[in-house]
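Researcher: I'd like a structural prediction for the single chain below. Treat it as a standalone chain; there are no partners to consider.
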Amino acid sequence: MAKDYSEYQPNEVEKRRLRVHGTKDISFKVFRNTAAFLPDTQTLRIIVDNGFEDIMRLDDMEECERIEKEHREIHEDVLSPEDIQQREELRVDGLAENERDFSVLCAKFKIDRTIFDNWAETEYDAHPELKKRPLNNVLSGATITLRYGEGLLDFIYADFEESFKQAMSAVCGFIGLIEIMAEAEGIDVEEARRVVDSRPEPVEKVYSCVQDIVDEYLRFDDTCMYISEIMYQSLYTAVCPPSFTDDRRARPALNKYYDYIRFLQEDYKALIEFCFDPDFWPEVLGSLHAVERYLLYQRIKGLPASIKRTEWFDFDSHQMGGSEIPYGLSKDELVQRLSGKFQPTPEHARFAEEYGIPLDKLGAYLKFPWFLNVRYGFSSLDELLQLEFSKMLEANMRLKRDPESGQYVLPPPAGDNGAGRVGLTPEK
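Model: Treating it as a single chain, here is the predicted structure.
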């Protein structure tokens, strides 16, 4: 039997899901980032996806171009000298904007992009015919070290209103161009808008997964034209940028993005006050652990208290996450292990023969330790905020408001003599 949902009333869980999930016009899950947490120092280390930059997609785009030439006729663009000059000016301006945006972020946070920058320089050296392109996201490939709560507070107090107005103005400028052209042709303006919005998306024949990879990259590349100013209003909106599925639908995509950000800001402001403020209803909540306060809040709101985290296990020969195996070694144990000489026995020789591994390579594997790294994967802003918030709950954080701004702030780290940007103190 057919069902009529025209008067369906979603519950609180469904309402929240609608606010934080993407639509046909915008995806909030684009970058594949990871984060590692160090409970002893109450810090987190974020590694930002580097796959949405031109220099990273060279081989894929060349393969995609080869596939297109093989299956359909390609007409190369012929640029005039004026077009070439304009592109060069845009490239130079883009590089300068990169420097400014990155400097602003580095002044506020501990960010290291050395590994990615060195790799990119090596790639450009190997392709002297290429000129250095501006980055779509200045945090691509960066490692960011934060204290618990630092990124979350930066996000909830960021002001996105003006940057969204500018982005919408640019979109409406394009729509205004449509209106001017429609009037010149004697076409009804509203009809012209409907034609543009309802125009069916062209169907592209796909022969290889590389075409989907390049298409995903190009969609994000186009999206950056609209969201570059919005991205850098906070650290986390740059770590987890969205992607528009169709630039012809940029206006509804921007509206959805603004609603998404504003909802998350207000949602976490309320959560922080309820869970971490010792002066919030102290007679009722003062004796409760942050986790208990969170559970009570979720029950009052009719929301589930569970938090899902995507955990990744991988291994590293350099970076330790502790002082005991499998996460690490103490300094003395590490020196002892590395300084020892491998002396193979007949058993080593038989083992190497049994498993088809050279004896010297077996010795290296046995001598040089590899450490287990537990990381969390995330793509969307909602996932990142929830991930950091869950760690703050585990640490039973307490936050105070700044008497002048009224905003929650983090006290300086221990031994910082008051000069530190941020800090958190766990409840004893």
